[in-house]
Amino acid sequence: MSEWQLAETFCSTSGEVRWDRLGQPGQRPVVLLHGTPFSSYVWRAVARSLARRHQVFVWDMPGYGASEMFSGQDVSLGAQGRVFAELLAHWGLEEPLVVAHDFGGAVSLRAHLLHGARYRALALVDPVALAPWGSPFFRLVGKHSQVFEQLPPALHHALVREYVSSASSPGLHPAVLDKLVKPWLGELGQAAFYRQIAQADQCYTDEVQDRYGEIGMPTLVCWGHDDTWIPVAKGRELAARIPGARLETIAGAGHLVQEDAPAELTAALITFLQHPVAGRSAPATR
């Protein structure tokens, strides 16, 4: 398994962000946003495929992956939306194509609706977008994050490993699971894991979900049919709220569609990104 490294650094208002780009300059830009508790690593296969025809920008949000983690860091959805708008300005991207997964979906929606970020088209993959969200485990940890931070490292490791595993329907390759868990280990990583859960307040999606009808860009909603973290019914509801949005479900995939069905997801994204069209038909599934 080849390494995934982000070579560039941007100093954001929430700490240093690691980022990189793939593909040739001058090609149509695509920005990929990861979710929680993941990093840009989950996009590696899709990013390399899209880079054949696009310049692909990938980044780890503050407090995630290879980006900076520190005590007192604001890693909330509110902060991440601002950071994304900052990054787009730093990259000089005025109207890129955007593909966002999970928590990254809320980040992209907030950046657009609250911070003026403009996209040529938006693909949302199993996004955190509609209330209620957060599993019983997620809510339990959020309420008692300071207690969980004190878990012995071995117990913390086992907990994170089991939690990340549950995002996949067919199961993750052990090497991939190790890679996804690694940023959350050690003193800094363990504290950062519980910090991001503690700050994951539903108020940040409540603030924008009644405005999804304002979205005028071409929008694709992709959903893993077997997602147990956020059921596919949320995908149908979201697609119905966004004018002209189309819903595409992916069989055999759980919440972590990039790992469960990378070829199917890539094919859906390539088709959409090459010919994005808004408002032509009612939402449909396949």
TrEMBL record:
Q: Which residues form a coiled coil?
A: none
- Sorted alphabetically, which SUPFAM superfamilies does this protein's record hold? alpha/beta-Hydrolases
Signal peptide stretch: none
Superkingdom assignment: Bacteria
The residues covered by the AB hydrolase-1 domain are 29-262
> Which keywords label this protein?
Hydrolase
A molecular function (GO) term: hydrolase activity
This protein is called: Alpha/beta hydrolase
